[in-house]
Structures are given as structure tokens and as C-alpha cells.
Amino acid sequence: MADGITAQLAEFICSFESRLLSPDQILTAKSCILDWSAVALAGRDEPVSRIVREMASSEGGTPEAMVIGLADRLPARTAALSNGTTSHALDYDDTHFDHIGHSSVGIFPAVLALGEALGRDGREVLDAFVIGLEVACRVGRYLGNGHYRHGFHQTATAGAFGAAAASARLLRLDEERCGHTLGLVSTRASGLKSQFGTMGKPFHAGLAASNGVEAAKLASLGFISNPQGLECVQGFADTHAGEGDAQTPFDGLGQTFRFDRVQFKHHACCHGTHAPIDALKALRSKIGPEAAQARSIVLRVHPQWLRVCNILSPATGLEAKFSFRLTSAMALAGRDTAALETFCDAACADPDLAQLRDRVTVETDDALGSIEALAIVELPDGRHLEHHCDLAEPVDAALTRTRLVEKAEALIGHPAAATLLETVDTLDTSERFTLPDVLASLGA
Amino acid sequence: MADGITAQLAEFICSFESRLLSPDQILTAKSCILDWSAVALAGRDEPVSRIVREMASSEGGTPEAMVIGLADRLPARTAALSNGTTSHALDYDDTHFDHIGHSSVGIFPAVLALGEALGRDGREVLDAFVIGLEVACRVGRYLGNGHYRHGFHQTATAGAFGAAAASARLLRLDEERCGHTLGLVSTRASGLKSQFGTMGKPFHAGLAASNGVEAAKLASLGFISNPQGLECVQGFADTHAGEGDAQTPFDGLGQTFRFDRVQFKHHACCHGTHAPIDALKALRSKIGPEAAQARSIVLRVHPQWLRVCNILSPATGLEAKFSFRLTSAMALAGRDTAALETFCDAACADPDLAQLRDRVTVETDDALGSIEALAIVELPDGRHLEHHCDLAEPVDAALTRTRLVEKAEALIGHPAAATLLETVDTLDTSERFTLPDVLASLGA
Questions:
Q1: Which CATH superfamily, name and number, covers A5-263+396-442?
Q2: What is the mean pLDDT of residues A291-304?
Q3: Is the CB of residue B344 less than 8 Å away from at least one CB of chain A?
């Protein structure tokens, strides 16, 4: 085994082949691409998507890669910036609790742009994407919860390492240049949680993807960085409150995989609110509409979420997505938390929801895992009912796929979802990588 | 006075006018532009300059701004990335000990690119540049030595805030959008000292400049960030080991100025080695050529430099620039430390220099300021001579100008230096901002 973390990652980038994965793992990687595509298309008219696209479009350049929402193609680095931002604009994309962030939005835009720019086939695109996801999970875990708690947004940071790894693979770099790619992205990766609730958050996904493309391109041209930039003294982890357990996060790299524990979002709000929403939905299906009359609601969650999604009295649709109290009220009141339009300014001003929201108390419990929640509801008759939800419980890959197809149909309509599904399912068997053309036509 | 650090900076960005400065301060700002231009032109064929320019050129795009070494113009964001890198490739550009980094290289490329792209006149360009320098100094001091010691490279970090401020001014943003510019660059700024000795270091200057242009452009299009991103809880300073003294660094902003304490480099190596080199040169001019026979040399420096420029036995020209011991040997042996070609691989392998280098001991002394050094030389006859040098001692602005003109002549020849000097001196009185055309023709 290669010596040192970056050397190990470089060896993995050069040697991995997706044909060694199980059918379920390949299905999951394709589900990520399907879900990413639908969420990105649905997000193309969000203000942040329009703004970043406008800058990108005004810059123009060599027509290398498709940009969702734009007729013209742009350089891969710019396309990755724009598509990354667009795909995270709705905050409805997949997440991973090793990565501690949103996975596909930081990585797939890099793969999509360079795959098209370099004329790679679908198999190479899939190889590179899985490499990117797996590296982001491993690096995310290496940086650890300490990094996240300190204020860094792993979607942007670990995501940039994933995007860099995927880009290096698509450029077919050798191990030495893969090392310089990862070293260079160590000094480029950035993104702070204090931008949550602003356009900065979705922009972070664009930054990750664009930084990855940039680092690999420069390394392919001979750029020399410090190839231990991730793990060295005063390297990225050391300076960015990384937990720095050098062994466990990289155990079995290339032999066992973590990327397939990715979580898809079925509620259009911050992932931290999902376990409480699922717990309260389960209670509502037991109690019926009377659930909206609850005297009090107590949520117990892991303390890490208090700084993430605990806006007490949100005033905008965007803030609503980061509010335990309001999303809980929505769940109990039977609002459709899967629908984008549920999270609007009007919902924040709704007096019934506000009343219910004010009966929600959020408590922290260190003993809970980061994707667990306990919800306790006190009914008007004084009875207490509780439900515990743990998102880590395994979900069947085929069942997940079915739910994602339904979600894609809800977001972009049936014909578009069907076209996407067919394109993604034949990705690794088609001679040409056709997804960019499909997205260009669906997103026009 | 506006409330909060960012609000205060935004007010300054919108209200400052360079005509309120003293003639010496204006001369100093122009000296920065003269020196930046000469050093950038001299660095255009360095490998890192070629690599970044090759990526930029392959991307192409709207011809907004001149790129040194390239016939075609490129988008301002890309031009800033390339010119920033090129101007820091030789590590021969100016520095500032409030900023704690290289000042002009992170800021002027943003000003140059947007000034040309937007068709601003020389007065507006000068206003924006001084704003950028002053903001970088103030933010650099706010982040403090703790930030630098922790591993961050202020040229890239404080530099990005300076470039963002200058860019916001050139785009004529109002205070609110200036706030979003600074908020956005808070989540974009990056750069680690662990890249020193690699191409990563000069690239940091390009990152600062390009990040500044990007943030201001996006804010001009309506991008909403967290406008307290610099100073808020888990904002840039908080997460990046900033010292966070919220008052002193911003005292008198807009009334008194710090930018004019900028330091110019007269030796073609790391600024940390300059005080020791000046001290040893003073001793050599007293002792004569016999100085090269010294039995032992002791350098006393501030401990912060040990991680920066204490490569004991450098093997390459680049490493030589970060070696107290070898640069000391060069100074005592009468080598021309102002000449670029002195710092080459052959000098590292020179047996005479190596012998002298091995007689140098570096000691740290907390009582010394960061730009002070004490050199003690023991001669063959047993005599000890010492010299103390403090770079903070004021130097006359006109004398500095004379030395910079000589330096420019040494770097790019007499006719080019004369053309530059005339262009820079008439910057604020000419109707058109002609420097981009002049640099394009000199750098072709």
C-alpha cells in the first residue's frame, strides 16, 4: 500500500474500476446522477442559479461543456461552477454522513463538464464519479465532525477533494500528478457554514466542483504543489480543525466502499430536519389530523444541528428550510414537505403554522446519532406519544430508485424524468456520454 | 460611524478619494504600481506563470482585460488569476507587515483587470487600488499574527478582502452590495503556508485577485451573502484562527492610512531574509572580502520566521530564496542578492557557499520585532563584529522611488522601465487608463 494519505488516494484514483462494484452499488451511483439531474433542472431558475450563470455567460469562452439553463457551452471550469451552484440551489440533493455534506453537487458537475470536454465515454464518467464520491467520503470523515463543528462546510471542502480526484481520473493523470492535484486543492478549498441561509451555501457546491476541475487541469499542465497538502503539518486538515485520524477513514480504500450509504432527500429542506420530520410524519399517520392540535412537541436531536437548522421563527422560504420548529409544524399539520412550494414566505407568516411552531421545543441529546431524532407529542387529552427515527437504517437500493423516479417526476414532469432515467440507466453501456446533450435539451 | 467591521469597510470603500492623500502617499501608491509592473513583466516566463496562462488561454472568453505574456485579452476574473500568479512568481514584489503578506500582487491584478474591463480612468483606478491596499492592511492586522502562525497565508486571505474591496469600488457598488462582496469573499478566500517552496505560493496571489473580482461581480448581479461573513461567529476570522481584535485594526479608517508603510524588496528572496541580509551586507562593507572567511555567523531573528525561510541546506533556486543560511552566505560572499540569477540550483551546489552556509547558526529572539535582525560575525582573528537592522525604520519616499527605478531597469531594461515610469507617474492626470496597453506591448 502506498505511504501516506495522499499517496493512497492517488493510487486509488489511478487503479479503481467501477466494474468491480456490486450491481446495487452501481445502481446507487446511477441514482445519484438521476437525482442530481432532476434537482439541478428544477433549480435552474432560482435567483442564485441565474446570477452565477449570468456571470459565467458574460465571460464566455471555449465551448467545452454544457451549462444548465444556457444555450451556449462554456469552459469546463466555469460550467462546473455554474452547474454546481444550480444543482444545490434547492437544497434538495443527496447527502452523506461520512462526507458530512452534500455529495453529488460538489462532484458530479466536475465529472459532467470534464467528461464532455474530454469526450470520455459513460464507463469512464461513472468510474470518475464513484472515485470522487468515495474520496469525498473518506476525506470528509478524516476531517471529521470537529471540522464541521468549527464552522467549515464539508460540501465545499471535502467536496473539492472529491471533485479534484474525479477530475484527475478523467484527465488520466498518473499518481504523481494526482498528488499535485490533491495538494493544490488543499490550498484552494474553502466554504463556511456561516453562509447558511444565503446564496453562499449553494455557491459552495459550485466552488467544490470548479476548484476540482481547476486543480486537475493545472496539475495536468505541470503545476507543482505540496503533494502532502491535505495531511502535512499546517496542511488543510491541520489548519482547518480536522480531526486527523489518519488510519480509520482510509481503511480498506479500494476494497470496501462507503459512497453507497448516500442519503437521498425526500423533504425539500435541510437534511438535519429529516429525521424529526419522518418521526412526526409517523406520529401523524398514527394520530390523524388531530396531530395539528398537539399541546406540545419535544424534539430530541444531536447537538451539532443547533447551529445548522434551528432558526426559531423563520421569515423566508429559505429560512424555513433551516428551522426545526417550522418544519415540525409542517409535518404535524400534514403539509407536503416533499414539495418545493411548501417552503415559501407565506408559510412562515401562516398563523396556524406559527402557533404550532411555537409549541415545539428542541432539546439536544449527545447519546443520539447525528441522523437520529426522537419526537414526543402531547395530545390535547394529555396523552404522550413518541417516535424514534434513525436515517442510518438501510434502505433497499431498488426501493430508493422508485422513490427517486417519483421525486424526479414531481420536479420536472413525467416525460423529462423518463428520458433522464433511460439516459442514466444506459450510462455505462453506451458508446457515447449523452447526458450533457440530454440535460442541454431538457434545461433549455 | 457605521456599525460593525464590514459596515465600516463598506463605508470606506464608497467614500474614499485618493486626492485627500499627501503627495508622498500618492507617490508610494504609484511606486507600488511601478514595482508591480516591472516584477510582473520579469516573471512572465517562469514555469508557474506559463502554466496558469496556458489554462487561462485554453479557456478563452470575452476579451475584457490584458494578460501579461498573452496576445489575446481574457475575462477580468481570469486575467486577475493569471497576472496575480505571474507577478508573484519571482517573489520579488512588495510586502506589508500589517497585511502580513505581499500586498500589491493580490490586489493590483484585480484593479488592472476591472479598470480596463470597465473603462475606468486612472484616477478611479488609483482610488480603487489604495482602497484595496488599505483594506488588506486592516483585515490582515485584524486576522493578526495568530492567523499567519496557524498556517494561513495572508497574501491570499487578507489579500482577497483587499481585492474584493477594490473591485467593489471599480464596479461602483453601494454600501449594501459592498457588504455582500466582503461576505462572499469570506467564504471563498483560501491559501496555506504549507505550499511555500512550490508553485502554490505565487498562485495564491492570483487566487486573491481573482476571488476579489468574482465576489464583486456576483454582488453587482444581486448575489446575497452573509454580509458579516468576516467578523461573525464562525465567520472567516473566527474559523481561521483570527486574533479578532475588533477595534485597534480599524481605528481611524479613512482618516489615517497604513498602506504607505509598504516595504519594497531589494533582494530577490523571501522578505524574512532581508533584515539579516542587510545586516550582513553592512558588516561586509566594513570588513571587506575577508567577511567570506568568517569562522562563525550567528543570526538572531523573530521566531515566526523559522517555519517560513529556514531551509537549512536548499537544493534548488526556489528553496534558496527561503534559506536564512544560504542567503547569509551569499551576502557575506558579496553575491548580488538583488539579481534574480543569483538564486539558482548551481548556487546551492557551490562548495564555497555551502561551506560558509554551514557556519551560520540561526537563533530566535522573542524580543526582536518581526522585521529586525541581529547578525554577529566571528572573524578568523577571533574578533566579533555585530550589526542590527530594523526594516521598520522609515525610508524617504523619493529615495525609495530612485531605488525602484534602478530595480526596474535591472529587471526589464532601461527603455521599458522609462516607459513604465512615465505611464505610472501620469496615471491620475491622464484621461485614459493606458497601463494595460503599455503592459501588453512590453510583455508581448
A1: 2-methylcitrate dehydratase PrpD (1.10.4100.10)
A2: 96
A3: no
